[in-house]
Amino acid sequence: MAEKTAPMPMSAADVVAYFQCCGDAFACLSTIIGAIQDDDNPSTTDALIVAGMHVADRFARVANTWRDWASAGGLKP
Question: Which among 7, 10, 24, 42 is least surrounded, fewest beta carbons within 10 Å?
């Protein structure tokens, strides 16, 4: 059976990189939502909605994982 290791503290640089990654995802969502708002073609709008949902779902799971890591291990001083 695999031995369970204690959570390791995260560096501030890692946390900043994780926030940047989430910020980039929010920027993508903003672009997608803006395109939906400006588009009158239902098939294009549906495709943009699916893309937006994919970005939101993927980064929600990733952000939750990173939050759990930081919460469990804390930050390096």
Answer: 42
Residue 62 burial (C-beta neighbours within 10 Å; 0-12, 13-18, 19+): middle
Q: How many CB atoms lie within 10 A of CB 74?
A: 12
pLDDT mean over 47-52: 94
**Are 64 and 4 within 8 A, CB to CB?**
no
67: left (phi over 0), alpha (psi -120 to 50) or beta: alpha
CB-based burial label for 32 (10 Å; 0-12, 13-18, 19+): buried
Q: Higher model confidence: residue 1 or residue 61?
A: 61
Say what the pLDDT of residue 75 is.
Answer: 86
